[in-house]
Amino acid sequence: MANGRMEFFTDIYSIWLREMIRYVRARSRLVTSLITPLLWLIIFGSGFSSSLRFGGPSGTTNYVNFLAPGILGMTVLFTAIFSGMSVMFDKEFGFLKEILVAPVSRTSIVLGKALGGTTQAAIQALLILALSTLIGVRIEGTLGLAAALALIVASMFFIGMGFVGLGISIASRLDSIEGFQVVANLLVLPIFFLSGAFFPVTSLPDWMKVLVDINPLAYGVDALRYAVTGLHTYALSLDLAVIIAFFAGMTVLGSILFRNVK
Amino acid sequence: MTNAIEIKDLIKHFEDVEAVKGINLEIEEGELFGLLGPNGAGKTTTISMLCTIQKPSSGSASIYGHDVAKEPDTVRRLIGIVFQDPSLDDNLTGRENLDFHARLYKVPRSEIAQRINDVLNLVELSDKADVIVKKYSGGMKRRLEIARGLLHHPRVLFLDEPTLGLDPQTRRHIWDYIEKLNREKRITMILTTHYMDEADKLCDRIAIIDHGKIVALDTPENLKRDVGGDVVILTVPSGTERLKVELERLPFVKSAQSVDSTLRLSVENGETAIPIFMDVARQEGISVPSIALHEPTLEDIFIKYTGREIRTQEAAGWAAFRSPGRR
Known about the structure:
The structure holds two protein chains of two kinds. By secondary structure, chain A is mainly α. In chain A, 77% of the residues lie in helices and 3% in strands. Chain A has a two-stranded antiparallel ribbon with strand order 1-2. The longest helix of chain A is centred in the middle third of the chain and has 29 residues, at 145-173. Chain B is built from twelve helices and 14 strands. Chain B has helices spanning 43-50, 72-78, 94-104, 109-122, 138-150, 168-185, 196-202, 220-227, 240-248, 270-284, 298-306, 310-321; strands spanning 3-13, 18-28, 32-36, 58-63, 66-67, 79-82, 156-160, 188-193, 205-210, 213-218, 230-235, 253-259, 262-267, 290-294. In chain B, helix 8 (220-227) packs across helix 11. The radius of gyration of chain B is 23 Å and the shape is elongated. Chains A and B meet through helix 1 and helix 5 of A and helix 2 and helix 3 of B.
């Protein structure tokens, strides 16, 4: 049994390793995927910062600082969901069969892929965070730098795992890459726009507030924003509870749906 | 001798079709066994069940006594598979593809590097090991897949259409590897193909499968002897059936079959039969623009048992078979 548990983890590692080799090898994609979030941050952030201060009941900050955690959340969301597409590519190019007939549990395949996608998402987002300091983003919350960074990484991990799980779930049910892109885009934009990435969510119209409150990314962005700026909408414990539940739920869903993949 | 594979009353039906309709088969250890038949005959479905990809609807199959439905993980470690469609990661190098496979199949860490070098040598890809697979030719990819199938020392290797779509020279190369492996490593091999020459050249025994059933099972030699003598093929644009009736009356004609606008006759001695055939045709006023004579091939056996040519079947089944969803 101990041996079996050992194998479970080495299998996850093997799957993760392949995802990472592929990621590192696609260096040009890595660079281009940094450009969009940086443009948001530089143009939107600097543009609004010149005339506005943003915040909520817990205080205010300049807009570029307010926006930065939102952009980190966006980066994790996009990278994670679309890394679920690797299941589609594996299906399309036949490699999935090689994985499916191996003596490896479906759960370790899903976890390995999810960890791979999450690692990629976190690397992207941390690079953005590092670059954003060049345009004046500062970690200025009450947590202290080490604790803030720990919270940032933890939040990225849970929302990353959650959205890769969602991506894998979608990929498991669809047969074409085009179909995946349509469904993923349909989900990604509302999730992003209604996450409080751009604006404070405290004084929104009721209908919109409801949509924000049921959006797991809103809690992820809130935790990230608390780490970066000290501002928050929800209690940190609620943020963490929601994103951990989201991570767990999506991982289970992904594992179940992936089991039926042919 | 032990049986590597035992199949009993194996049946697989999908929602509306019965793809495999009760197959019984025993394959001995070390045998190079051919499953022959047109696309849609049930070859790939049978292989899929043996490889634990699909579950049998009823009946059973076991590999070295391990039931494919009840002990899939044990079976997976005993078998290697070379799929019909490509199944490599194009963005990894050959060596990385093999390394990934070795990890998933729990090859002991200390042996991985050596085994990878061994199988690469075997398929003569050592000098391309660190090149991205995207840059491989079709034949190289196939060889890498065969190498990968062997990496975890399987006792049974499944080869699903191993030379499909390859040029003749590469096909011959692949055949050499397959024979070498079977001979030197005593690996039991199950090969599906719709190339008659391939099955004829490689296989110890052949099962011809059609509409989900085994219609013939023997060595290639015995199957050919069964058809016997020579095969004479007359092209008959019109009046095929009438000519068939006349020729079947001749005492030396063992069997006659009309396929499209040709008449295939199995006879003891083709050279002496042809002039007589021509005389009969002339008397009946039926024109025969061309005649061919050859020793029986597996193609003739296939036609004998199924009444159709394997190649025309292939053409008809091709488009549906290669649809994107299938890949």
